[in-house]
Amino acid sequence: MGTVEQPPRAARVRRRVLPYLLIAPTVLALAAVLGYPLVDLVLLSFQGMTRRELFSGAAPPWAGLANYRSVLSDGFFWTVVGRTALFTVVCVVATMVLSLLVALLMRVVARGVRTLMTGVLVAVWAMPVMVAASIFRWLSDADYGVVNWLLSLVPGLDLSKHNWFENPWQGFAVITGVVVWGAVPFAALTLLAALSQVPAELAEAALVDGARPRQLFRHVTWPVIRPTAVLVTSLCAIWDFGVFNQIWLMRGGQPEKEYYLLGVYSFIESFAVNRYSAGAAIAVLTVLMLLAGAVVYVRQLVHLGAAE
Fold first, then answer.
1. Which residues, 6 or more positions from 48, have their beta carbon under 8 angstroms from its beta carbon?
2. Which of 94, 85, 173 is nearest to 136 (CA)?
3. 84 with 259: CB under 8 angstroms?
4. Region for 100 from its dihedrals, namely left if φ exceeds 0, alpha if ψ lies in -120 to 50, beta otherwise
5. Residue 237 in contact with residue 92, Cβ under 8 Å?
6. pTM for the whole structure
7. Dist. CA 108–CA 117, nearest whole Å
8. Measured between alpha carbons, how far is 203 from 217 in angstroms, rounded to an integer?
9. What pLDDT, in 10s, does the model give residues 136-160?
10. How far apart are CA 164 and CA 178, in angstroms?
């Protein structure tokens, strides 16, 4: 038997080096844009920055781990962490359930209706957060809100002049609506693309064998779209954990403590209370928590690539 001719050494080296060369511009751009601010943020979290150092330009004193000890020993910080985690879970679950239902619906409707739904989803996705927040503030307005007017039409229910943000649970329900509204288009279109990869012959064979719709989804559809669903869930969790704009806009730039999530808490500590280093420590801890979610996302990408 003849031996397989090996490529020259130079060709093997180029093959190994080429992927790193191709990704190098992206890595350098990210390092230039995000590297310095992130390093500066970490350094600030170990210092004792006050307004005196900020305005005078003097070097702030070194505080070591004092800011982290202060933050981690504060019960309110852990309250905000728990609130952020709960908010993230609710938003992600609502987003994935609604997106999956929309994707399944788009798969069975006529082509023209599917095109119309796609256009609507893209329009919603392209809507700026400020516009979406303004719409939801109008919908839930205590004096002129459409939601109060519609619910007041229900016999025995009077919600005129009802302030949805007086109760944080109700207020977060409105904010969750803004977040889910902006996330559903991406998740639904991505899941729709995954659904298009389900082999039609497998579905037809399952139906011929007497499978019910629930069994068809569980044993045929879900195994195919599961990798994509896991990736979309991971991305939504990362995005929702760092929500800031929706809360800041819905509360008019003055969110109450009951509406603090980690992003809002870090911003308030830094620029409203002027505890710059404490705010930086909270931001670093938030980044570390987000990195944990990013690790899950990258692992899913690796598993998906291996499966393919």
1. 60, 61, 62, 63, 66, 67, 277
2. 173
3. no
4. alpha
5. yes
6. 0.84
7. 12
8. 9
9. 998 988 888 888 888 888 888 888 8
10. 14
